[in-house]
Amino acid sequence: MAKVIHEKNTCVGCGACAAVCPKYWEMGGDGKSHLKESSAAGDNFELTLENVECNADAANACPVRCIKIEE
Ligand code: SF4
Fold first, then answer.
1. What is the pTM of this model?
2. Which protein residue's CA is at the shortest distance from atom 1 of ligand 1?
3. Which domain holds residue 58?
4. Rounded-to-10 torsion of CA 33, 43, 56, 1
5. What's the pLDDT tens digit per position in 11-44?
6. What's the structural domain count of the chain?
């Protein structure tokens, strides 16, 4: 299992995650990205998956490192 965590307050809305992993990431009307089907957890958004899939690419592409993966 893998937990994907988006620290949304840190997100600068560059769009890199949505570019490399559109299955899970999209840009929102608030100028930040959104982790599809995630749940709010405090200031963060979280999604638990069987496999990390392209979220690893999203985490690596994020310039402010606000996408975390826990496996
Ligand atoms: S790559 Fe990082 S900073 Fe850029 S939109 Fe995605 S989460 Fe936000």
1. 0.96
2. 62
3. 2-70
4. -130
5. 999 999 999 999 999 999 999 999 999 999 999 9
6. 1
